[in-house]
Amino acid sequence: MSIGKEEREAVLRVMDRGVLSGYRGSWGDWFYGGEEVQALEKEWASYFGVKHAIACNSATSGLWIALAATGLTSPYDWSHNLNSDVNGCDEIIVTPWSMTCSASMPLHFGAEPVFADIEPDYFCLDPKSVEERITRYTMAILVVDLFGMPYDADAINAIAEKYSKKYKHKIYVIEDAAQACGATYKGKYAGTLGDIGVYSLNVHKHIQSGEGGIVVTDNDELAFKIRLSMNHSEAVINSMPEDENVWSSCLELVGMNMRMTELSAAIAREQLKKLSGILAVYQENAKNFLIKIRPGCTSAFYKYAWVPKTHDDEQYLAYLMMNAQDKFNFKKHYIDPIYTMPLFSNLGYDPHLCPTCEEVEKDIVLAWFREVV
Fold first, then answer.
1. Could you tell me the CATH superfamily of domain 275-369?
2. CATH of domain 5-86+158-271
3. pLDDT digits (tens, 9 = 90+) for 97-119
């Protein structure tokens, strides 16, 4: 997260050039943004070993774009029908324990967020609970790599594939890797494990551009729909030559302006060069804590998170809180389950949907650096 002379020089480079955004909402070379944005996207794709990287103005926007690219549709307002035997609208399986946008984003499309429970040790979506929640209306599983730990990709991806075949429509896995930039699962980077991945460049993430996000995918059609959704889709399609080939699924997209500026991209390029060094610091300091790591994974340790389970664990926590307060903040709480918040309570969600999440929240301990790494 450290900002140094490299970032200052990058900003001055853009200022001297005098072009602070290279985008236009119409077809042509400018549809892909300015030279800093395009360079960042190429460097990001190369670093993470993914075919397409699309820069946007935040990870929250990235989640919106990702869902838009999946082609969500809703026949009617589902919010009045939660207790109906026949729902009939699109459903997105989400986590109850994350930044709220990871669960609330489906509401922007008239889709229903369906909360699955979390794992007691790794705090990501529990594959068993996910499978219990899937219906013929499920369109995507929105997983979150919480606290920097990758989700159980083998299990959840297999569930998505199994029920895609059963219900004869694609169930996408969208990976919110906002807290897990640089983490790995069996040699692959978090964010590249599902159909679409979303990274955050928010000010308090591992690397930052103030605000910013990156959406990644290996799918050509999804990548183009992501770009269109981010940048005035209907205007871009309208300005294309008649002989331009475009997927028919793109023709009904309604776009937004969620583009990244040249200044943000220039800073992000320099930050990306520092990621491995920053991660090394997070991972070395993780040795101080009682954190369980998913087999085959490395964590980015956005937060050092664990649940003390024995008297010795509690004694060690007391020792840490007494002797490491100069280096780390400590907190015995994360967030209340999202479905208990007023928005979801008013929509009729049961206040006790996910018992494991509720139990973990009572005992969770979080630690994080006092100073910027």
1. Aspartate Aminotransferase, domain 1 (3.90.1150.10)
2. 3.40.640.10
3. 999 999 999 999 999 999 999 99
